[in-house]
Design brief:
The chain is of the alpha+beta class and 242 residues long. It has one domain. It contains five helices and twelve strands. The longest helix is centred in the last third of the chain and has 29 residues.
Length: 242
């Protein structure tokens, strides 16, 4: 029955680009692999069940990372999720973003005011025994030669979904006031963040706050890299158009 129904067949996860689902492109990043003490250079990719006539689920079933550093070069790490645990896949997170009334209202407003919303790469990062999704939101003027600017960041963890101006505020809303904040380059102490009036209380399954500080700094670096890549892409497109 397992082979007949293709229950254990996997496919590369999908995300939204220009309102259309596309296959997630493997993403290079520097991160701390679960169980390791130091950050390392990896290529990561999420997997979901393969689509078929009897199966159209988009939940995450596994996450793979190809290691790039030193003696671990070429090693593949595969984290297969238990079948009794349902973890949202990338496309399900995209749907939750679209269905959130506050987020969808803001994105629709920006798209109608002489500008275009660009949703960046949706990153799935293992943290605290679950996955933290990070998606930067860029705004670009419809005038020629304009450069996209990151306006918001969306974080999703378990049942919680937030969109805020910056990563620190988003983390506070997800995990509470005790959350370590990402630091800017050259800083050795966390940047204080004013707590929002409305915030999500910490759940019993929240990760160990002390263990995610490095992860948060790595996410901030990822967002900076994504914005740099996007600006470079827009610049190349302008040259071609000329």
């Amino acid at each position: 029955a397992v082979f007949y129904n293709k229950e254990d067949s996997w496919d590369i996860g999908k995300e939204l680009f220009e309102s259309k689902p596309i296959t997630v492109v493997p993403y290079y990043t520097i991160m701390k692999v679960p169980g390791e003490d130091k950050p390392e250079f990896v290529l990561m990719l999420p997997f979901t069940p393969a689509s078929s006539e009897s199966n159209s689920r988009n939940n995450m079933v596994s996450w793979m990372a190809a290691r790039m550093d030193g003696e671990h070069y070429g090693e593949l790490l595969l984290y297969k999720l238990p079948k009794n645990i349902e973890v949202d896949g990338p496309l399900q997170i995209e749907s939750r973003i679209d269905q959130d009334p506050d987020i969808s209202k803001q994105l629709a407003l920006w798209n109608q005011s002489g500008s275009s919303v660009i949703r960046g790469n949706l990153l799935a990062l293992p943290i605290g025994g679950n996955f933290l999704y990070v998606e930067p939101i860029y705004l670009q003027s419809n005038k020629g030669g304009s450069i996209p600017e990151m306006k918001r960041v969306v974080l999703a963890y378990q049942d919680h979904l937030v969109m805020t101006d910056n990563l620190g505020t988003a983390l506070t809303q997800l995990f509470g006031d005790g959350t370590p904040q990402p630091t800017t380059p050259g800083q050795s102490t966390p940047v204080p963040v004013v707590s929002p009036q409305t915030q999500t209380t910490t759940t019993q399954n929240a990760p160990d706050m002390a263990s995610i500080t490095d992860q948060m700094n790595q996410i901030r670096k990822l967002l900076d890299d994504l914005e740099t890549q996007l600006k470079g892409f827009q610049g190349d497109s302008s040259k071609i158009a000329q």
